[in-house]
Amino acid sequence: MLSPVPLKYPPMRRPELPRLRNLAALVAVVLGLGAANAGVAGDRPNLIFVLSDDIAQGDVGAYGQDLIQTPNIDRLCAGGTRYLSAYTGTSVCAPARSSFFTGLHMGHCPTRANRELQPEGQRPLPEGQVTVAEILKSSGYRTATVGKWGMGMFDTPGSPFKTGIDRFFGYNCQRHAHRYFPDYIWDNDKRVELPENVGGDQAIYAQDLIQNAAVEFVTDAADDDEPFFLFYAATLPHGKFEIDDQGIYADKPWTDLEKNYAAMVTRLDSDLGALVALLEEKGIADNTLIVFSGDNGSSFDPNTAIGKKFDQTMGGTLRGYKRGMYEGALRQAAFAYWPGTVPAGRVTDEPWAFWDLLPTFAELGEAKIPADYETDGFSLVEFLKGGPAPQRDYFYWELHERGPGPMQAIRFGDWKAVRPKAGGPVELYDLSKDLGEKQNLADERPELVTKAVAMMNEARTADPDWPDPATADPKVFRRN
Questions:
Q1: What structural domains and CATH numbers belong to the chain?
Q2: 158-176, pLDDT tens digit by residue?
Q3: What is the distance between the alpha carbons of residues 408 and 398, in angstroms, rounded to a whole number?
């Protein structure tokens, strides 16, 4: 069994929090205390997807980071399978989450960009959209999201409660999630005021509340012997880069931004370790699959001081960062952990993507995908267990951004084609020899560029809300 790794430094402060009915349970988890083990909820595994907001591959010790400590994630990687080519849905928040939730890549996903609504929330998932939570709930799973939603306010069809979620706690709106000491937070659809933080006071750190909600949900499901699906959409380490305690980094000769960022990554690591300890305490660790990933690569340009300090591209191995189409934006730090099922110590470069998780979770949960719903994903069940990754023709991404306008990328085999600007030329890279995407081979291999463009056209469904990157005017930015 894998217990949380004791940090080689004093733990970060956990302030006393108001309004939490099970704070004692969290303390018990961290200290390794608690009640006797509960039974396993049948043969179907519990399913947890932990999505870290803006973490880069290079932020994690298992991927080579040596300044930021991530001992729990490193141990989970060692006890499970670490993926070198795990791909997000696309390189910003809302569409990346929507890709996971719908099982669709960006050629078909209803959300292909961040689109803000006023006064709060993002463009919602459409009425009747099939989701992974809805599928699992229909098969008897208890479902929850904690952290950041960003797929529709409560009065829209994208509400968590209209898309298969039983329990929600955290931020509905992505803009609101930038505040780690918020004036309020959502408990289901009820707004809970946090007057202790009003006026810029920093009394209650939101991650403490989110972690406690996750602990409560898992505790309740385990005690009731029910299979559960938890989408742990952590806001860490997205900006604003705020932390209630810099911990072991406080005395480092670093800037406050560097100290805060490192502390945020380590806070996430500590909370993930506590969650695994709870699974063990409840006797359900061997029947729980944990998949961890970042959502879109680092928010820092690798040429900035902080990008260089933490070497987020791992010595320049990956090019690019958030809001781009290069590998540094699309490849994520990712692992799967399921004792006795997912091979321990395995490291694989075989690719998969967020849209594969819906059919994977459906198969594991013995849940039926509606017959008339066509997902872009492939089940990873055999791959998770040590077999080969599914074979497919391509992986496809697009993103609609201010500035460059709609952009595209497609990977087929070891070839990667990128259209980094709307209406612009397509670049071509051989990832088997040039993972850093430094040598554009488009002029040398025009036949492969032609093939890539044809597949890009095949991959996407025309939609007036999402202009074709091949012909769109980058100066026209749609706010829909």
A1: 44-384 (3.40.720.10), 395-459 (3.30.1120.10)
A2: 999 999 999 999 999 999 9
A3: 4
